[in-house]
Amino acid sequence: MCCETNRRFLLLYASQKGQAKAIAEEICQQATERGFRADIHCISESDKYNLNREKDPVVIVSSTTGDGEPPDTAIKFVKEINDKTLPLDHYSHLRYGLLGLGDSEYTFFCNGGKLIDKRLRELGAQHFYETGLADDSVGLELVVDPWIAGLWAALGREFASRKEEPGHRDRTASLRGSIGCQIEHLTLEDSAAQNGVFSNNEGKATAGPPIQNSQPSLSRSVPPLSQSALSVPALPLEYLEVEFQENISQESSPVGECLPLVPEGPLVQVPVSRAVRLTRDDAVKTTLLLELDVSETTFSYQPGDAFNVTCPNNASEVDELLHLLGLSEKKKHLVCLKVKPGTKKKGADVPRYIPGKSSVNFILTWCLEIRTVPKKAFLRSLAEYTADVEAKRRLQELCSKQGASDYNAFVRDAGVCLLDLLRAFPACKPPLGLLIEHLPKLQARPYSAASSSLFQPGKMSFVFNVLEFPSHLGEKRRGVCTGWMAGQVLPLLQSNTKNQTPLRPKITLSPRPVNTFHLPDDPSVPLLMVGPGTGIAPFVGFLQHREKLREDDQGSPFGETWLFFGCRSQAKDYLFREELQCFVENGTLTRLKVCFSRDPLAPAQPAAPKYVQDLLWLCLKDVARILLEERGRLYVCGDAKNMAKDVNDTLVNILITERGCDKLGALKILAALRDEKRYLQDIWA
After folding, report:
1. How far apart are CA 331 and CA 432, in angstroms?
2. How many Å apart are CA 568 and CA 32, to the nearest integer?
3. Can you spell out the DSSP letters for 362-379?
4. How many Å apart are CA 555 and CA 523, to the nearest integer?
5. Among 613, 678, 516, which Cα is nearest to 67's?
6. Which of 683, 680, 595, 597 is nearest to 638 (CA)?
7. pTM for this one?
8. What is the percentage of the chain residues whose pLDDT exceeds 70?
9. Cα(356)–Cα(563) distance, rounded to whole angstroms?
10. Which of 132-141, 245-254, 364-373, 573-582 is predicted least confidently?
11. Of the candidates 80, 63, 81, the residue with the CA atom closest to the CA atom of residue 72
């Protein structure tokens, strides 16, 4: 190998759900193969690295969460680098490259990475490699794979230039050597791919038999892919050792086991005191309101706060997984996890979110996100545990460069999960350790409070749609958390019509580390609230709070309060209709603007607004007046995919019309409103 080995760089990842961590680990593994040494750390582990004294190149992989916020693991880091007392040359010694992960269906695409990138440059740091922004809505790998491929040449040039500086050697000649080395690697890889050799030099890919008059599917390939030589990822290093122990008496409480494992705050288990269906039986979606009794806990909240619900995976899916993995008889066995001695995987460790001495069933139920779409590295590993030759070949195709379109069509876009793969490839029998290595942590799900503790002391309500969607084969599935909660409160819902008093189910909560979607401290500030569907939830809490404040302090001025609400049908899913009318009648809500997107118009009736952005446009003068002249606040809650973008576009048009500015000027005004915390969003995909 012509290139110098053990050239160190610092590799930091800021991950919310494990995506950034998995990509950083892939970079780390490839680094070793290419003669580099990646010193990999979570960005929250500030005791293990020091950017103030870092001399080597830095590579950062950052995801984005919420409405453009950095992931929870990066909150402390972002706060530290945003310290206004830092000099503008604080990081002038740093040379870095950054890969941002995001979803363009959200308004603030890749904003977590962009915030870090912008601030580092403001503090004097310089790029040695161009920033990459990967879009999960079309497939992260479309940017991630070429970005990683180009990283090695950039690092080679960076180290070559550093080596030249002390001896004042000719930069051009050295760069030629570095680039030549990279070209040699690329030539070797291309040659291997053309000959059907895997990137880890296992041998040639075996082409399957030609299939006539057939369409491709998850488990079936057709020419030309089935006849192609494949370039597949390197086989990920396995690093966990699993030992099963028998004879446990009873499984511990999942809540008790998980209590010390939630860094953002303690878990509290609270009973559901009331459950109400808010939509009619014939509505497109089922919307439930749950009222929780938090009176016996230390849990506190403000209107607009989001909180996390800890939920298990679907019990029947876990049972089927156990069966397909051949672990049904060991479901209650305790699992002891250890890192394999002598593993070459950098930063190998037992996942902290899996308690010691957990049972097999507990791990699959409470610890692992079994519904996640498998990454290509996982498919690569699964192929090694597949006895059937054709099935193994198909898994290799799905993780190969040549099979990228099939992966997108039959895995990513279809929302395929591990259970789907094991059904489609019954000869695939991976060990439990492999699942723990590749499946991310089962995430708690965030929800917004739909109540005020002033209005309902000791209670907290929230609202959700029971998510239902088809699997890749058309089988109806429910959301992991919403499906579980709907099942938990079914006896309560049934008792509403039978005058029974069932046992109250319990739900486990934890506070979110950051909440900014709050009412202003000054009640005289006017409010514009935009919340179609379940996006109305935090605004019910706002209005309850305002109503109570008005009762307790009748002499104080209160600003105008506008609510823009939309749903499909006035008769079927108009949420909180009676409550909203009461807020209007008692003066808490100044204006209520509603629209119904699926209700037919009566004969000769003029066209009515269908969506909340249409309502905003009809009220453009008042919207501009409240935001610009009266320094009001605008809150938007709901769907990020369409609504939030359409509302933002409408605001731009309102500003262009009312202020006489161009689009750039309107965007600057909205940016200023966000900076002043007067344009706040609580949105989700």
Report:
1. 11
2. 55
3. HIIIIIB-TTSPPPHHHH
4. 12
5. 516
6. 683
7. 0.83
8. 88
9. 49
10. 245-254
11. 63
pLDDT tens digits, residue range 221-267?
999 999 999 999 889 999 999 999 985 565 444 444 444 344 446 88
Cβ pair 560, 592 in contact under 8 A = no
Query: How many other C-beta atoms are found inside a 10 Å radius of the C-beta of residue 196?
Result: 15
Percent helix, strand, coil in the chain, to 5, is 35, 20, 45
> Please, where are the H alpha helices in 259-325?
315-324
Q: What are phi and psi of 526, to 5 degrees?
A: -70, 150
- Backbone phi and psi for residue 680, each to the nearest 5 degrees, phi listed first: -115, 145
Is the pLDDT reported for residue 637 higher than 70? yes
516: which DSSP letter? Answer: -
- The tens digit of pLDDT for each residue in 331-378 reads 999 999 999 999 988 778 999 999 988 999 999 999 999 999 999 999
Which sign, positive or negative, has the C-alpha torsion 279, 682, 439, 141?
positive
- Residues shown for the chain: 685
How do 468-470 and 476-478 pair as beta strands?
antiparallel
Tell me the β-bridge partners of 530. Answer: 564, 636
**Encoded tokens for 91:** 């990081």
DSSP tag of 525: S
Q: Please answer whether residues 647 and 636 qualify as being in contact, where contact means their C-beta atoms are separated by less than 8 angstroms.
A: yes
- Looking at residue 153, its amino acid is A
